[in-house]
Amino acid sequence: MSANGLERRTANYLSNNVPQIQQHGGHFEIEDVDDETGAVTVAIGGACSGCGIAPMTMKAIEHRLPEELDGVSSVTVRRAGGPRAAVMPNKTEEMEEMAEYEDYSPPF
């Protein structure tokens, strides 16, 4: 399987199974795909950067992508940088550490 195929399938999965990212003004980018190891890095940004449930969305993506897509062994999700980046990064970084997010399983 080619890295482009895995990248395309990852993007399709996120578009189809986590549509609220785009519906709520956020965006995602597939930053890196290692075809040999199956490691994928995804960045989310736009409105996601300041969203209170962004940490939950990030954890859900990290857990579900390897379960749902053959060839994906691990996923790292981070906040995108640049001009489309965080609205409230300090707040969401604090929220990632909150116990409430540890076992959250959103419906996507």
From TrEMBL:
<dbReference type="GO" id="GO:0051536">
    <property type="term" value="F:iron-sulfur cluster binding"/>
</dbReference>
<keyword id="KW-0614">Plasmid</keyword>
<dbReference type="InterPro" id="IPR034904">
    <property type="entry name" value="FSCA_dom_sf"/>
</dbReference>
<protein>
    <submittedName>
        <fullName>NifU family protein</fullName>
    </submittedName>
</protein>
<feature type="domain" description="NIF system FeS cluster assembly NifU C-terminal">
    <location>
        <begin position="19"/>
        <end position="75"/>
    </location>
</feature>
<dbReference type="InterPro" id="IPR001075">
    <property type="entry name" value="NIF_FeS_clus_asmbl_NifU_C"/>
</dbReference>
<dbReference type="GO" id="GO:0005506">
    <property type="term" value="F:iron ion binding"/>
</dbReference>
<feature type="compositionally biased region" description="Acidic residues">
    <location>
        <begin position="94"/>
        <end position="108"/>
    </location>
</feature>
<feature type="region of interest" description="Disordered">
    <location>
        <begin position="79"/>
        <end position="108"/>
    </location>
</feature>
<dbReference type="Pfam" id="PF01106">
    <property type="entry name" value="NifU"/>
</dbReference>
<dbReference type="GO" id="GO:0016226">
    <property type="term" value="P:iron-sulfur cluster assembly"/>
</dbReference>
